[in-house]
Amino acid sequence: xxxxxxxxxxxxxxxxxxxxxxxxxxxxxxxxxxxxxxxxxxxxxxxxxxxxxxxxxxxxxxxxxxxxxxxxxxxxxxxxxxxxxxxxxxxxxxxxxxxxxxxxxxxxxxxxxxxxxxxxxxxxxxxxxxxxxxxxxxxxxxxxxxxxxxxxxxxxxxxxxxxxxxxxxxxxxxxxxxxxxxxxxxxxxxxxxxxxxxxxxxxxxxxxxxxxxxxxxxxxxxxxxxxxxxxxxxxxxxxxxxxxxxxxxxxxxxxxxxxxxxxxxxxxxxxxxxxxxxxxxxxxxxxxxxxxxxxxxxxxxxxxxxxxxxxxxxxxxxxxxxxxxxxx
Length: 328
Ligand code: DP6
Hints:
It is a single chain. The model has no long low-confidence stretch (mean pLDDT 95). Helices cover 35% and strands 24% of the residues. The protein is α+β, with helices and mostly antiparallel strands. The strands form 3 sheets. Strands 2, 5, 10, 11, 12, 13, 14 and 15 form an 8-stranded antiparallel β-sheet that branches. A 6-stranded mixed β-sheet has the order 8-7-9-6-1-16, covered by helices on one side. The chain has 2 domains: 8-176, Ribosomal Protein S5, domain 2, CATH 3.30.230; 179-321, 2-Layer Sandwich (Alpha-Beta Plaits). The chain has helices at 72-89, 111-126, 133-143, 196-202, 209-228, 232-251, 262-276, 300-308; strands at residues 8-14, 17-21, 26-28, 33-34, 38-44, 48-54, 62-65, 68-69, 95-101, 155-158, 169-173, 180-186, 281-284, 291-296, 315-321, 326-327. It contains 8 helices and 16 strands. Helix 1 (72-89) runs parallel beside helix 2 (111-126), helix 2 crosses helix 3 (133-143) and helix 5 runs antiparallel to helix 6. Ligand DP6 binds next to helix 2 and helix 4. Residues 19, 22-23, 32, 38, 110, 112-113, 144-146, 196-197, 200, 286-287 line the site of ligand DP6.
Protein backbone atom coordinates (compact mmCIF):
# COMPACT_ATOMS: atom_id res chain seq x y z
CA UNK A 1 0.00 0.00 0.00
CA UNK A 2 0.97 3.62 -0.38
CA UNK A 3 3.55 5.44 -2.43
CA UNK A 4 5.41 6.68 0.67
CA UNK A 5 7.26 3.72 2.19
CA UNK A 6 8.10 5.25 5.58
CA UNK A 7 6.46 4.21 8.86
CA UNK A 8 4.86 7.17 10.62
CA UNK A 9 3.63 7.10 14.16
CA UNK A 10 2.13 9.44 16.78
CA UNK A 11 0.62 9.03 20.22
CA UNK A 12 -2.06 11.18 21.85
CA UNK A 13 -3.91 11.25 25.13
CA UNK A 14 -7.34 12.62 25.81
CA UNK A 15 -9.89 12.76 28.61
CA UNK A 16 -13.57 11.96 28.29
CA UNK A 17 -16.01 14.72 29.16
CA UNK A 18 -19.25 14.99 31.09
CA UNK A 19 -22.01 17.01 29.45
CA UNK A 20 -23.78 19.57 31.66
CA UNK A 21 -26.13 20.37 28.76
CA UNK A 22 -26.54 17.18 26.72
CA UNK A 23 -26.19 16.45 23.02
CA UNK A 24 -29.11 14.19 22.09
CA UNK A 25 -30.23 13.74 18.48
CA UNK A 26 -28.63 14.62 15.15
CA UNK A 27 -29.99 16.68 12.30
CA UNK A 28 -27.39 15.00 10.06
CA UNK A 29 -26.37 11.60 11.42
CA UNK A 30 -23.67 11.03 8.77
CA UNK A 31 -21.76 14.23 9.61
CA UNK A 32 -22.91 14.15 13.26
CA UNK A 33 -24.39 17.62 13.08
CA UNK A 34 -26.26 17.79 16.38
CA UNK A 35 -29.87 18.83 16.96
CA UNK A 36 -28.66 21.14 19.73
CA UNK A 37 -25.57 22.79 21.21
CA UNK A 38 -24.03 21.37 24.40
CA UNK A 39 -21.66 22.24 27.24
CA UNK A 40 -19.27 19.90 29.07
CA UNK A 41 -16.29 19.55 31.36
CA UNK A 42 -13.26 17.43 30.48
CA UNK A 43 -12.43 14.73 33.03
CA UNK A 44 -8.82 14.67 34.18
CA UNK A 45 -8.13 11.40 36.00
CA UNK A 46 -9.72 9.28 33.29
CA UNK A 47 -7.50 8.88 30.26
CA UNK A 48 -7.41 7.32 26.81
CA UNK A 49 -3.98 6.84 25.29
CA UNK A 50 -3.86 6.04 21.57
CA UNK A 51 -0.94 5.28 19.29
CA UNK A 52 -1.48 5.38 15.52
CA UNK A 53 1.14 3.94 13.19
CA UNK A 54 0.75 4.17 9.42
CA UNK A 55 2.79 1.23 8.17
CA UNK A 56 3.19 0.46 4.43
CA UNK A 57 3.64 -3.24 5.22
CA UNK A 58 0.10 -3.60 6.66
CA UNK A 59 -2.60 -5.16 4.51
CA UNK A 60 -5.48 -3.79 6.55
CA UNK A 61 -6.09 -1.50 9.49
CA UNK A 62 -5.67 -3.08 12.94
CA UNK A 63 -7.33 -1.99 16.18
CA UNK A 64 -6.11 -3.16 19.58
CA UNK A 65 -8.16 -1.83 22.52
CA UNK A 66 -7.00 -2.57 26.06
CA UNK A 67 -4.76 -5.36 24.78
CA UNK A 68 -7.46 -7.11 22.69
CA UNK A 69 -7.67 -7.05 18.91
CA UNK A 70 -11.12 -5.82 17.89
CA UNK A 71 -13.17 -6.52 14.78
CA UNK A 72 -16.86 -5.77 14.22
CA UNK A 73 -18.68 -2.48 14.63
CA UNK A 74 -16.11 -0.65 16.79
CA UNK A 75 -13.34 -1.59 14.34
CA UNK A 76 -15.38 -0.47 11.31
CA UNK A 77 -16.05 2.86 12.95
CA UNK A 78 -12.32 3.40 13.55
CA UNK A 79 -11.50 2.36 9.95
CA UNK A 80 -14.03 4.88 8.67
CA UNK A 81 -12.35 7.59 10.71
CA UNK A 82 -8.89 6.57 9.47
CA UNK A 83 -10.34 6.81 5.93
CA UNK A 84 -11.28 10.42 6.59
CA UNK A 85 -7.71 11.14 7.73
CA UNK A 86 -6.16 9.29 4.76
CA UNK A 87 -8.42 11.23 2.41
CA UNK A 88 -7.36 14.57 3.95
CA UNK A 89 -3.67 13.62 3.86
CA UNK A 90 -3.76 12.07 0.38
CA UNK A 91 -2.30 8.76 1.57
CA UNK A 92 -3.54 5.18 1.32
CA UNK A 93 -1.40 3.45 3.95
CA UNK A 94 -3.13 1.24 6.54
CA UNK A 95 -2.63 1.88 10.24
CA UNK A 96 -2.25 0.02 13.49
CA UNK A 97 -4.24 1.71 16.26
CA UNK A 98 -3.39 0.73 19.84
CA UNK A 99 -5.58 2.30 22.48
CA UNK A 100 -5.89 1.96 26.24
CA UNK A 101 -8.53 3.33 28.59
CA UNK A 102 -7.89 3.44 32.31
CA UNK A 103 -11.66 3.46 32.95
CA UNK A 104 -14.45 0.96 32.10
CA UNK A 105 -15.66 1.05 28.47
CA UNK A 106 -19.34 1.14 27.41
CA UNK A 107 -20.89 2.01 30.77
CA UNK A 108 -22.11 5.52 30.11
CA UNK A 109 -18.71 6.99 30.90
CA UNK A 110 -18.14 8.55 27.50
CA UNK A 111 -15.32 6.39 26.19
CA UNK A 112 -16.17 7.23 22.56
CA UNK A 113 -15.45 10.90 23.30
CA UNK A 114 -11.88 10.38 24.50
CA UNK A 115 -11.41 7.55 21.97
CA UNK A 116 -12.19 9.66 18.93
CA UNK A 117 -10.47 12.79 20.28
CA UNK A 118 -7.22 10.87 20.86
CA UNK A 119 -7.57 8.94 17.58
CA UNK A 120 -8.15 12.16 15.61
CA UNK A 121 -5.11 13.86 17.11
CA UNK A 122 -2.76 10.87 16.84
CA UNK A 123 -3.86 9.90 13.31
CA UNK A 124 -3.65 13.42 11.89
CA UNK A 125 -0.24 13.97 13.53
CA UNK A 126 1.05 10.63 12.19
CA UNK A 127 -0.27 11.58 8.74
CA UNK A 128 1.62 14.88 9.08
CA UNK A 129 -1.51 16.99 8.82
CA UNK A 130 -1.12 20.06 10.98
CA UNK A 131 -4.67 20.88 11.99
CA UNK A 132 -5.87 23.73 14.19
CA UNK A 133 -7.85 22.94 17.35
CA UNK A 134 -11.03 23.89 15.50
CA UNK A 135 -10.27 21.55 12.58
CA UNK A 136 -9.41 18.75 15.00
CA UNK A 137 -12.67 19.31 16.86
CA UNK A 138 -14.71 19.19 13.63
CA UNK A 139 -12.97 16.03 12.48
CA UNK A 140 -13.36 14.35 15.90
CA UNK A 141 -17.08 15.26 15.76
CA UNK A 142 -17.58 13.20 12.61
CA UNK A 143 -16.22 10.14 14.48
CA UNK A 144 -18.27 10.64 17.67
CA UNK A 145 -20.23 13.80 18.39
CA UNK A 146 -19.15 14.26 22.00
CA UNK A 147 -15.49 13.73 20.96
CA UNK A 148 -15.40 17.26 19.54
CA UNK A 149 -15.72 18.50 23.14
CA UNK A 150 -12.70 16.49 24.34
CA UNK A 151 -10.38 18.35 21.96
CA UNK A 152 -10.30 21.80 23.67
CA UNK A 153 -9.39 22.29 27.35
CA UNK A 154 -11.49 22.61 30.49
CA UNK A 155 -15.09 23.78 30.27
CA UNK A 156 -16.20 23.47 26.67
CA UNK A 157 -19.12 24.47 24.46
CA UNK A 158 -20.03 22.72 21.18
CA UNK A 159 -21.82 25.23 19.02
CA UNK A 160 -24.57 23.67 17.00
CA UNK A 161 -23.43 25.46 13.83
CA UNK A 162 -25.02 25.67 10.42
CA UNK A 163 -23.02 22.90 8.81
CA UNK A 164 -19.85 20.86 8.91
CA UNK A 165 -17.67 23.98 8.77
CA UNK A 166 -18.92 25.63 11.96
CA UNK A 167 -20.10 22.79 14.19
CA UNK A 168 -17.15 22.47 16.55
CA UNK A 169 -16.28 22.93 20.21
CA UNK A 170 -14.23 25.59 21.97
CA UNK A 171 -13.09 26.28 25.50
CA UNK A 172 -15.22 28.71 27.53
CA UNK A 173 -13.02 28.47 30.65
CA UNK A 174 -9.68 26.75 31.40
CA UNK A 175 -9.48 23.70 33.74
CA UNK A 176 -8.23 25.77 36.69
CA UNK A 177 -11.17 28.18 36.42
CA UNK A 178 -13.30 26.25 38.93
CA UNK A 179 -12.28 23.39 41.23
CA UNK A 180 -15.26 21.14 40.57
CA UNK A 181 -15.00 17.41 41.16
CA UNK A 182 -16.92 14.68 39.34
CA UNK A 183 -17.50 11.64 41.58
CA UNK A 184 -18.65 8.93 39.18
CA UNK A 185 -20.73 6.18 40.75
CA UNK A 186 -20.17 3.00 38.72
CA UNK A 187 -23.41 1.09 39.05
CA UNK A 188 -22.75 -1.38 36.26
CA UNK A 189 -19.75 -2.39 34.18
CA UNK A 190 -21.92 -4.22 31.67
CA UNK A 191 -22.01 -3.02 28.08
CA UNK A 192 -25.07 -0.82 27.67
CA UNK A 193 -27.96 -2.35 25.68
CA UNK A 194 -28.61 0.68 23.43
CA UNK A 195 -25.64 2.71 22.20
CA UNK A 196 -25.80 6.50 22.13
CA UNK A 197 -25.56 6.36 18.33
CA UNK A 198 -28.80 4.32 18.23
CA UNK A 199 -30.32 6.60 20.85
CA UNK A 200 -29.60 9.73 18.78
CA UNK A 201 -31.35 8.18 15.78
CA UNK A 202 -34.50 7.57 17.86
CA UNK A 203 -34.60 10.98 19.58
CA UNK A 204 -37.10 12.50 17.16
CA UNK A 205 -39.57 9.66 17.77
CA UNK A 206 -40.19 11.04 21.27
CA UNK A 207 -43.03 13.56 21.52
CA UNK A 208 -40.87 15.34 24.12
CA UNK A 209 -37.80 15.97 21.93
CA UNK A 210 -39.23 19.12 20.28
CA UNK A 211 -40.04 20.58 23.71
CA UNK A 212 -36.55 19.73 24.95
CA UNK A 213 -34.90 21.33 21.91
CA UNK A 214 -36.95 24.51 22.34
CA UNK A 215 -35.45 24.91 25.84
CA UNK A 216 -31.82 24.25 25.00
CA UNK A 217 -30.69 27.76 23.92
CA UNK A 218 -31.93 29.21 27.24
CA UNK A 219 -30.35 26.32 29.17
CA UNK A 220 -27.03 26.87 27.42
CA UNK A 221 -27.09 30.54 28.45
CA UNK A 222 -27.86 29.68 32.09
CA UNK A 223 -25.20 26.97 32.21
CA UNK A 224 -22.51 29.08 30.52
CA UNK A 225 -23.19 31.95 32.91
CA UNK A 226 -23.21 29.66 35.96
CA UNK A 227 -19.79 28.34 34.94
CA UNK A 228 -18.31 31.77 34.23
CA UNK A 229 -19.70 33.17 37.53
CA UNK A 230 -18.98 29.95 39.47
CA UNK A 231 -22.57 29.90 40.67
CA UNK A 232 -22.97 26.33 41.90
CA UNK A 233 -26.67 26.50 42.84
CA UNK A 234 -27.61 27.73 39.42
CA UNK A 235 -25.36 25.13 37.75
CA UNK A 236 -26.87 22.34 39.87
CA UNK A 237 -30.44 23.18 38.91
CA UNK A 238 -29.82 23.42 35.19
CA UNK A 239 -27.59 20.33 35.05
CA UNK A 240 -30.17 18.10 36.77
CA UNK A 241 -33.04 19.54 34.72
CA UNK A 242 -31.16 18.97 31.46
CA UNK A 243 -30.23 15.39 32.38
CA UNK A 244 -33.84 14.63 33.34
CA UNK A 245 -35.12 16.14 30.09
CA UNK A 246 -32.78 13.96 28.03
CA UNK A 247 -33.79 10.81 29.91
CA UNK A 248 -37.48 11.74 29.52
CA UNK A 249 -36.87 11.80 25.74
CA UNK A 250 -35.00 8.49 25.92
CA UNK A 251 -37.78 6.81 27.94
CA UNK A 252 -40.46 8.03 25.52
CA UNK A 253 -38.69 7.21 22.24
CA UNK A 254 -39.76 4.34 19.99
CA UNK A 255 -38.64 1.87 21.17
CA UNK A 256 -38.37 3.29 24.69
CA UNK A 257 -35.09 2.84 26.56
CA UNK A 258 -34.51 2.87 30.30
CA UNK A 259 -30.84 3.22 31.23
CA UNK A 260 -31.34 3.58 34.98
CA UNK A 261 -30.86 0.82 37.57
CA UNK A 262 -32.31 0.95 41.12
CA UNK A 263 -28.99 2.31 42.43
CA UNK A 264 -29.11 5.10 39.82
CA UNK A 265 -32.39 6.38 41.27
CA UNK A 266 -31.20 5.93 44.85
CA UNK A 267 -28.18 8.17 44.12
CA UNK A 268 -30.36 10.80 42.43
CA UNK A 269 -32.54 11.01 45.55
CA UNK A 270 -29.58 11.11 47.94
CA UNK A 271 -27.83 13.86 46.00
CA UNK A 272 -30.97 16.01 46.05
CA UNK A 273 -31.35 15.57 49.79
CA UNK A 274 -27.65 16.37 50.37
CA UNK A 275 -28.10 19.58 48.39
CA UNK A 276 -31.17 20.53 50.44
CA UNK A 277 -29.05 20.14 53.55
CA UNK A 278 -26.39 22.50 52.16
CA UNK A 279 -23.89 20.19 50.40
CA UNK A 280 -23.08 21.60 46.94
CA UNK A 281 -23.65 18.54 44.73
CA UNK A 282 -25.80 17.65 41.73
CA UNK A 283 -26.24 14.62 39.49
CA UNK A 284 -26.10 14.09 35.75
CA UNK A 285 -26.46 10.81 33.83
CA UNK A 286 -25.33 9.97 30.28
CA UNK A 287 -26.60 7.07 28.16
CA UNK A 288 -26.07 4.45 30.85
CA UNK A 289 -26.83 3.71 34.51
CA UNK A 290 -23.80 5.38 36.11
CA UNK A 291 -24.23 8.67 37.90
CA UNK A 292 -21.86 11.62 37.70
CA UNK A 293 -22.11 13.59 40.92
CA UNK A 294 -20.66 17.05 40.36
CA UNK A 295 -19.57 18.84 43.51
CA UNK A 296 -17.22 21.51 44.73
CA UNK A 297 -13.78 20.37 45.86
CA UNK A 298 -14.56 21.38 49.46
CA UNK A 299 -17.33 18.75 49.68
CA UNK A 300 -15.77 16.07 47.45
CA UNK A 301 -14.66 13.83 50.32
CA UNK A 302 -18.09 13.81 51.92
CA UNK A 303 -19.83 13.17 48.59
CA UNK A 304 -17.35 10.40 47.69
CA UNK A 305 -17.97 8.66 51.04
CA UNK A 306 -21.73 9.11 50.79
CA UNK A 307 -21.93 7.60 47.31
CA UNK A 308 -19.61 4.73 48.21
CA UNK A 309 -22.02 3.64 50.95
CA UNK A 310 -25.07 3.37 48.65
CA UNK A 311 -25.96 -0.29 47.95
CA UNK A 312 -25.44 -1.24 44.30
CA UNK A 313 -22.51 1.14 43.78
CA UNK A 314 -19.55 -0.99 42.62
CA UNK A 315 -16.93 1.73 42.57
CA UNK A 316 -16.57 5.49 42.65
CA UNK A 317 -14.17 7.17 40.23
CA UNK A 318 -13.00 10.71 40.71
CA UNK A 319 -12.15 13.36 38.10
CA UNK A 320 -11.35 17.07 38.04
CA UNK A 321 -11.53 19.56 35.14
CA UNK A 322 -9.20 18.28 32.43
CA UNK A 323 -6.97 19.73 29.74
CA UNK A 324 -7.05 19.52 25.97
CA UNK A 325 -6.28 16.44 23.89
CA UNK A 326 -2.49 16.37 23.54
CA UNK A 327 0.35 14.60 21.78
CA UNK A 328 2.75 12.67 23.99
C1 DP6 B 1 -25.70 11.12 26.50
O1 DP6 B 1 -21.14 11.31 21.35
O2 DP6 B 1 -21.52 9.06 22.41
O3 DP6 B 1 -23.35 11.31 26.46
O4 DP6 B 1 -21.98 10.77 18.21
O5 DP6 B 1 -23.07 8.55 18.21
O6 DP6 B 1 -20.78 8.79 19.18
P1 DP6 B 1 -22.11 9.43 18.92
O7 DP6 B 1 -22.77 9.71 20.33
P2 DP6 B 1 -22.08 10.22 21.66
O8 DP6 B 1 -23.35 10.79 22.43
C2 DP6 B 1 -23.22 11.36 23.70
C3 DP6 B 1 -24.54 11.38 24.37
C4 DP6 B 1 -24.50 11.77 25.82
C5 DP6 B 1 -24.67 13.27 26.01
C6 DP6 B 1 -23.45 14.10 25.74
O9 DP6 B 1 -22.32 13.67 25.97
O10 DP6 B 1 -23.66 15.26 25.34
